[in-house]
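ok so i was messing around last nite and threw this chain in just to see what happens. nothing serious, just curious
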Amino acid sequence: MIIVTEVTKSYGARTLFDNVSVKFVPGNCYGLTGPNGAGKSTFMKILSGDIEPSNRGTVVTPKKIGVLRQNQNEFDNERIIDTVMMGNKALWSALSERNAIVEAGTFTDAEMERFGELESVIADENGYVAEIEAADLLRGIGIPDDRHTDLMSQLPNDMKFRVLLAQAVFGNPPALLLDEPTNYMDLESIHWLEGFLSEYEGTLIVISHDRHFLNAVCTHIADIDYDTIIIYPGNYDEMVEHKMSARQRVEDENRDKAKKVAALQEFVNRFGAGQRASQVKSRRRDMERLAPSELKRSNIQRPFIRFEQEKPSGREIVRVKGLTKAYDGKVLFEDLTFDVLRGEKIAIIGGNGVGKTTLLRCLMGEVAPDSGTATWGGTVSWGYYPQNAEEMVPKGVSMLDWLLPLEPKGDQQVVRGVLGRMLFTGDESLKITDKLSGGETARLIMAHLTLEKHPVLIFDEPTNHLDLEAVNALGEGLSLFAGTMFLVSHDRDLISDTATRILSFTPEGIIDFPGTYEEYLEKYPLPETAKRPKW
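result:
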């Protein structure tokens, strides 16, 4: 169990959460939610002991907590199996110190005494079977025995995250803290992770911007809002419904109270100076009792994302014929042929590193194919959201100055209005691009695409830095877009909300499926990619 009592965290004049007291109990999975900047990662770091609260509040945790770290390259110079065992800090420290004493070759009395102490720690932490347990975990996440002694740098990013997850669960800690565990994971890996976590019996707290993932794994939602943290039963969608209905109920009650107070005030105004003093006094007490409940301002904001076309394209968008591309002897796609017509919304899915981004870049002419052609219709133009979004935005200019040339009349108010719909209000439009967070940069590019008004939109992993509200807004905007869309994403809800056609990279080749993602899954269900762990 994790018990948080009267914890506050502030940065300068800004309070993220104030006087929070919550309990996280074993057997439940808590999704920690809130918009970008609400303090989710900060709260997680307080739970893990990485940072301290701003006040004297207390956090009581189990002695051992598994923590999934965000920096997947931190252990690049370590062996894979060693990286897993580093999840038990006490054990790894004792093993490292003991091995250093043994390698020194000479033993003083003090070293012998210390050696005995270290052996005791190793025994208490089940260190003599640690390598066996770590190897079993690695097999469970899909890494064969002959790779366990490889360096972490030899793994692709999605497998690095699996190893870091194995590190977090090594030694079966009674509590797990996972910050964005689906980052860099493809759809099959996320599906595997849901099953991996479903059998965990301890206290699980997870941050994710993947709504489908939260709905699949969470039994409760710990929502950061109104300067506090409120725990709701159920998954993310159930939390949103409960939260909205609770606020609506308070607003309705306040309106009813206001009507009653107005009637009482009218009586007081009419008879306050007359002979009905006792009745007036009673009415005034009733007015005090009926004072409306205070409604704090929610920090949840949803951008308004809508994409328009300056001029619709012709019927034929692009004709792909015999497209082939290989890197370092690995064929990404071969003899790929398909046509895209106006209004189609194509989701390109598949594992990491299979060639999804390369296909987009071949279509746009940024990368030359080995053979084949991609011929665009004569009136087609496109707007592009790259996977590394920061590269698209120039440094050292204000958001307003970057976007202003896209407005035909150079009207600042039009551009400010677009930025306002992306949650940049007032003088925030003058903010220099160097100072933007990942989420702000993503919303700025959405504003850029809004102003460009191309008939074709191409998105490569647009949700990486967006919070849940922004992802939902993007899905709504794309579903209403009258033009043509190409979308590379691992967000299943975004794909489900928008796609009318699926291009799926599989080991057998690319499947061109004419239908929605749900229809695709009915025909090609996601496989179970690895066995479940032994908790």
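not much to say yet. Residues 530-535 have pLDDT under 50 and may be disordered.
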